[in-house]
């Protein structure tokens, strides 16, 4: 009787296990599966890229959009060590000067954000930056009114005490670059009879780095400030200053309008000063005084900045402000500055009427600054937006109509006018405004949905059904 050897039995057992597990065996041998091997012109399978790197392929008619290098949440300790983010870990090896990059920051607590050449990575933990008067970035001004951190190595991006912002940048040479989250200076500090103590806590910071191919259009409003920052109430008497000549406006002239919006979670003083008043600003500490109201016959407690007044270079001044917005017409040709002064917003503990401790923290401050030309279509639209936010619809409609007499091809103006007319109960006029939006910018599902709702309100069910169907199709 034939007795199979142990080797034969083992071979048969191994073959059965391979078949059951789905493993393929070399082609051409008996018992092979039907899966054909990769041909020489097929790429070999490799590791799948992270989901952030998977981008839809644009059609031939569409320009290539940005690709996401990484988008990730990081846990950071206030007052702790910097967090180093290496794009190489996300599959992106070399930055190129031919390409444009954007870095979006969204953090729960203010941090410094840096982009640096990897050649200088070893200096990061060794050299602690100092708080100094920063050099002026204006081409024709040597005196600087701003302070900041001095990192003693080259940086491509340096954003200080940022909470939410998108930065567009390029690199000077091809190479590896690092993104740094620096929280060393963002902890809460308390000064009392025992000295200075610092509190630390973990918080979340989200970074998104995108890369734009050469020639791609990047949506970026030059000369416009739109950011959320942390303004410190520390004992160093720090103020945040935005100089228009560092935003691309060496001088502002009559006919220019400054659109300013500042919203905070603690009170701050907000000023807009010309060049002469700015030279006076730092000479003396402001004092609290009784101030005459500008609009009514009354007084209130406010701050005097000594030689600065509406008659001497002060274009705007609001004390202890949480939320202010203004359109300021420039009276004369000069340099101009926006000042956010938080020096009176520190926390104070007292006992028996005597202070026993001071606590310095950060004020979350949302800032929007732009320069408009008086009587332009954009100017009237922005004024209309302002009254729309305030709920003053009649005024908003008036300014949107003035804007449209100068420019009838702005879809946002027509859209906002449609919102105003809808809320005023003028549904048919609102439908016309929304249709104008679609004429300029077809295929907006949100606009079709609003038109459908308006047709329902006018009891035109057939038109409403058609509009809703179009919103689903688009």
Structure, described:
The chain has about 475 residues and is of the alpha+beta class. It folds into three domains: about 65-220, Jelly Rolls (Sandwich), CATH 2.60.120; about 225-375, Jelly Rolls, CATH 2.60.120; about 390-474, Alpha Horseshoe (Serine Threonine Protein Phosphatase 5, Tetratricopeptide repeat). It is about 20% helix and about 35% strand. The chain contains eight helices and 20 strands. Strands 1, 2, 3, 6, 7, 10, 11, 12, 13, 16, 17 and 20 form a twelve-stranded antiparallel sheet that branches. Strand 14 and strand 15 form a beta hairpin.
Name a few traits of the molecule.
474 residues, 8 helices, Jelly Rolls, alpha+beta, 22% helix, 36% strand, 3 domains
The structural domain count equals 3
* CATH architectural arrangement of the largest domain: Sandwich
**CATH C-level label of the largest domain:** Mainly Beta
Radius of gyration equals 31 Å
Could you say which overall geometry the principal axes of the C-alpha atoms support? globular
Strand content: 35-45%
CATH topology tier name of the largest domain: Jelly Rolls
Helical stretch tally:
8
Written as H for each helix and E for each strand, in order along the chain, the element string is HEEEEEEEEEEEEEHEEEEEEEHHHHHH
